[in-house]
Amino acid sequence: MENNMKKRLLLMCLASAVSTIALMGVTSKGLLENGESAKPKTVEITFDYVKQSGPGSNQYAVWIENDKKEVVKTLFVTSFTTKGRVREGQPIRRGYTYRPTCVPTWVANSKVAEMPDAALDAFTGATPQSGKQTFTWDFTDLEGKKVAKGKYRICIEATLKNDYRVLYTGEVSSKAKRGELVMNKEVIGQDDAYAGMIKSVKAVVY
Which of 5, 52, 66, 103 is most buried, taking the most CB atoms under 10 A from its CB? Predict the structure, then answer.
């Protein structure tokens, strides 16, 4: 009887040890001991958009590129840039081909000119109404495959008015810890009347 009790206690101790090893480094809140999340990381990108009046404005793109400035995933591009505007009696042309000021950094880095029209549907959307815009990147490429370990850049480019545009960039690593990223701002041209189209830009790793 006493031997059986000892065996049971030994088995219970072994089971407990296995469970501890399986959960090692993870707390009840789902965090690793170093404070990182045990869940797959995502980056949430937000900004306030104020729709402008008149042509030559309201175009923007949100994308991720690697350290070679190769676009690994485009999250959003306004439809005029990629699809143009359909006018009766005129052939359909992509917007950037006859208005080259449409998010030119994204146009160059994404090599959109080499993409078939059908491929553009994955990330093209209508120009939204004014308000907070939110985009999420889950460290995957356009095909949904996990990107390689390394450093990446979050990019937001907006054509505010003709040649006047703004480019926000922020670096994020595949090993990034949770928290807000530093977003750098570069302004090209000047037209104060349209400066408020894109503001309050944030990127946060969750």
Answer: 103
